[in-house]
UniProtKB/TrEMBL annotation:
Protein name: Calcium and integrin-binding protein 1
Gene3D superfamilies for the chain: EF-hand
Keyword Translocase recorded: no
InterPro entries: CIBP (IPR051433), EF-hand-dom_pair (IPR011992), EF_Hand_1_Ca_BS (IPR018247), EF_hand_dom (IPR002048)
PROSITE patterns xref list: EF_HAND_1, EF_HAND_2
GO biological process: integrin-mediated signaling pathway
SMART domains recorded: EFh
Presence of the UniProt keyword Mitochondrion in the record: no
């Protein structure tokens, strides 16, 4: 899929939608259809936010912590030196994200906190198309 080839989250998308027991993140035709249904215009915001959360949860532990957020920012800004944030900028950005999203103040963002933030963003469904 050409859109997936250039996507900075391509490996995470394949990982999240793969049901392969081999651990190689390969996708069956059914997996592929599931992926397309999530990214379709008819999928609900709850479904989209659930899968976005899983894609952004790089360590698959059920929360977005500082490491997940750093990887997320790096995927969005690119890995090149010219686009990479300084350590201080990254720390400030992650702190701002956590202050805005971490309702229970445990230092991580869980699925319900993520969905709460998404629910306040009417443009989320359309911006989620960027991921795929």
């Amino acid at each position: 899929v050409p859109m997936l080839q250039a996507n900075p989250f391509q490996h995470r998308i394949c990982h999240v939608f793969s049901t392969s027991d081999d651990g190689d993140d390969s996708m069956s035709f059914e997996d592929f259809l599931d992926m397309l249904s999530v990214f379709s215009d008819s999928a609900t915001s709850d479904i989209k936010s659930h899968y976005a959360f899983r894609i952004f949860d790089f360590d698959d532990d059920g929360t977005l912590d500082k490491k997940d957020l750093e990887k997320l920012v790096n995927c969005l800004t690119g890995q090149g030196e010219e686009s990479r944030l300084s350590s201080a900028e990254m720390e400030q950005l992650i702190q701002n994200i956590l202050e805005e999203s971490d309702i229970d103040k445990d230092g991580t963002i869980n699925l319900s906190e993520f969905q709460h933030v998404v629910s306040r963003s009417p443009d989320f469904a359309s911006s989620f198309k960027i991921v795929l």
